[in-house]
Amino acid sequence: MDGKLVEFGDPVDTSDSSLTPEPSLDNINTSIALAPPSKDPTDDHFTIDSVHRYNKKLESLNYEYNRMLASTLDNQRAFFEHRLAELNQEESLIIAAKKQEIRDLEINQLSVIDE
């Protein structure tokens, strides 16, 4: 969970080359793992087994991505709830200090008036 955004294009539509990553050492395994099932040169259809394996890979990626996203959102929620509690506590302390300051000023003014 390194905070990278992952986008998945249509696995069947290869016409949009902007979604296809440039080959590099970083994404060579990913591009191989996400490659659509290869066609049999003698047949116009994908084999059932290759489609099944490809769908299982996509389901697995989808599950992992959703799990990572849910975990990240939970962590962010916990962080911001904690931060909000800290800010509320700081604000309460500031308000209490200001109220005490006002009371002290009122007492000082009353003592000045009494003299």
Describe the overall structure.
With 115 residues, the protein is an all-alpha fold. It has a domain at 54-115. The chain is 63% helix and 0% strand. It has 2 helices and no strands. It has helices at 28-33, 48-114. The protein is rod-shaped, with a radius of gyration of 31 Å. Residues 17-32 have low confidence and may be disordered.
Task: Present the secondary structure layout.
Layout (H helix, E strand, L loop, with lengths): L27 H6 L14 H67 L1
What global shape is seen? rod-shaped
Radius of gyration: 31 Å
Percent of residues in beta strands?
under 5%
> Structural class given helices, strands, pairing?
mainly alpha
Alpha plus pi helix count: 2
Low-confidence stretches: 17-32
Fraction of helical residues: 55-70%
Distance between the termini: 69 Å
The tally of beta strands, per DSSP, is 0
Major beta sheet summary: none
- The sequence of SSEs as H and E is HH
The average pLDDT is 77
Can you tag this structure with a few keywords?
single chain; 115 residues; mainly alpha; 0% strand; rod-shaped
Give a quick precis of the structure.
This protein has helices at 28-33, 48-114. It is mainly α.
